[in-house]
Design brief:
Largest sheet: 8 strands, mixed
Helix content: 25-40%
Number of strands: 15
Distance between the termini: 51 Å
CATH topology of the largest domain: Rossmann fold
Strand content: 15-25%
Length: 408
């Protein structure tokens, strides 16, 4: 089941920005960094619906409140568009440090303009999607109406945006005016998807035309017929998310790994899948992955080596018990084996026959036998567990011989 986490991160000004991170129930296909509309917040219905739909498609999604909005610290009226762009870069840093850098930037309204401006500062980004975005941040100045003259004359004025009051400063307006994205969009060097409603009465569709015309291929344009600027209709938000997911998967594909080498019967081959910890394990008939947890620097795409070791002992234990129970026609309904590996100081290991002065490895095994069994039958099955071939190998006189293949 997908999960939603409330979190926060500090921007470059040291302000705490409130965020929501949604994760699928499987390893994410990639992470989407979502920027909300001008004067909105991360929890606006369109942002929530799009994030949820993208998560259902297998993506992790981070959305957050820009400086001074929602539950984030700071003063929105003095922050400016440059601050929004920097907040996005800081959000990408947070994802990179704690999960995985975003491969997709998605922005709604002025948030779309901000992701266009931020994209080249986030090297991992492969694709950018905008929804109802203006080509230039200054386009939103018209929302201030006759307050623009007051701001210019007095240095600031109280304005109402989307039903909320803000004090907008002259610096805020000047910051909006200085950003000309028509010269930056051609240098985007990322796949671009532009969504816009033809009847958008907040941001003219001509703004989308400017973005699209300025961009170089690959680029795509999707008309949101009948939608309003805020995508208040749930079907419109879902359509945007599903279209984005289908489109962006084309750009997130990694080269297919070559088919794993088939091991000779009785052998196991372990090959590198990357230059970190991901490994392809192959036998003559089967293939699977091994990895390390993210805390250890891996990607957690498969069991780690000790989990494989525990799995070998556990599987062998279960099979051996079942084989004996079937042979003796015992009423064993089910056998479950739980295992754990740990390392303890030899002096603290009760019952260990070890001359080591350091640490010893402990494999703990708990066996649950379900069925109508007598006490004697249960005890016998536990004795049989110790006859498991892997168990006997691990506790026997074990030697590992290593040689180099393809030596110079």
């Amino acid at each position: 089941m997908a999960s939603r986490l409330r979190t926060s991160f500090n921007n470059s000004q040291g302000l705490a920005l409130a965020a929501a991170l949604e994760l699928p129930d499987t390893e994410p296909l990639g992470f989407v960094l979502f920027a909300h509309c001008f004067s909105c917040g991360k929890d606006i219905s369109a942002a929530s619906r799009i994030a949820r739909a993208l998560t259902n498609e297998g993506f992790g999604v981070l959305r957050f409140d820009f400086t001074g909005l929602g539950k984030s610290e700071g003063d929105f009226g003095n922050a400016g568009f440059s601050s929004n762009v920097q907040d996005l870069i800081d959000a990408a840093d947070y994802l990179r440090e704690n999960h995985q850098a975003p491969s997709v930037l998605m922005g709604h309204s002025l948030g779309g303009t901000a992701v266009l401006a931020a994209a080249n500062s986030i090297p991992e980004v492969k694709a950018v999607a905008t929804i109802g975005a203006p080509a230039a941040p200054s386009h939103v100045v018209k929302q201030f109406g006759d307050k623009r003259e007051e701001i210019a004359a007095k240095g600031s004025a109280d304005v109402s945006l989307a039903g909320r009051g803000f004090t907008i400063s002259r610096d805020f307006l000047e910051d909006l005016e200085q950003h000309d994205l028509t010269t930056r969009i051609p240098k985007l060097r990322r796949a671009l998807l532009v969504f816009h409603a033809p009847l958008d009465d907040i941001v003219s569709v001509s703004e989308a035309s400017t973005i699209f015309a300025s961009a170089k291929h690959p680029k795509s344009f999707v008309s949101l017929d009948g939608a309003d600027h805020l995508l208040t209709n749930a079907d419109d938000a879902r359509y945007v998310a599903e279209t984005t997911a289908a489109w962006v998967k084309r750009y997130l594909k990694t080269p297919e790994a070559p088919s794993p080498a088939k091991a000779p019967s009785g052998q196991v081959i372990v090959a590198e899948n990357n230059h970190k910890f991901l490994r392809q394990i192959s036998t003559d008939d089967h293939s699977w992955l091994a990895d390390e947890p993210k805390a250890m620097g891996g990607d957690n795409l498969g069991p780690d080596p000790y989990e494989h070791l525990l799995a070998a002992l556990g599987a062998c234990t279960s099979m051996t018990i079942r084989m004996y129970a079937n042979h003796k026609k015992l009423n064993l309904d089910n056998v479950n084996v739980r295992l754990q590996h740990s390392r303890v100081h030899a002096k603290d290991c009760e019952g260990c026959d070890s001359e080591s002065a350091g640490k010893v490895d402990i494999l703990e095994r708990w066996i649950d036998l379900e069925g109508d069994l007598t006490e004697a039958e249960r005890n016998r099955l536990l004795q049989i567990a110790d006859r498991c071939p892997v168990h006997r190998t691990l506790e026997g006189d074990l030697h590992i011989r290593t040689s180099v293949e393809n030596a110079g």
